[in-house]
Amino acid sequence: MSNELSQHPRFTPRLVLRPFRRRDVGPVHEAVLSSLADLARWLPWAAKDYSRTVTHQFVRDSIGAWGDGRAFDFAIRAREDPDRHLGNVSVWWTSRTNRTGEIGYWVRSDMTSRGLCTEATARILQVGFEELDMHRVTLRIAVGNDASERVAQKLGFVEEGLLRDEVKVGAVWLDHTVWGILEREWRVERARYEAEAWG
User: Fold this and answer.
1) Please, which of 84, 90, 98, 99 could form a disulfide with 135 given CB 3.0 to 4.6 Å?
2) What's the whole-model pTM score?
3) Which residues contact 196 (CB under 8 A, 6 or more apart)?
4) Cα dihedral sign for 25, 171, 144, 177?
């Protein structure tokens, strides 16, 4: 079982996925601010007082987590415009003993409904299963976040259950659905990913 992950970029037909760098603070901050109204519905960190300091802390923590082998955050960038931040996709361990991980993602509001999140997540599933040797990968999606659920459905995740009052966003507790995909299921699905030009 691998505890380390190469920091080289990963590619899809349209995207470059790479670890965060210190100089990403500005582009990430701009992307979050431009999408804050949408992100704030689902993510506790996307608060009204979101600041550049929060972005700086995220980038610093991301670099540290990668170095420690705890979590692997990828910046999503377009191949033809690699300086513009499109969103994040991450994979991290929830149980090394049971070879289980989780993925999280978001894409900036002005770039949604183009399949970018599906394409990025398909590639990070490959990282989880092939490079990290995971057996199972999960997603937790806030109830009502239909766009994120469509990503899970397109990639062949199975909806497994409901976590009640799982995350507090502002003053509201949100239920989350749990979705999972096993390595053997992913190996069947990946041919479809390639046919859809996601990987």
Assistant:
1) 99
2) 0.95
3) none
4) positive
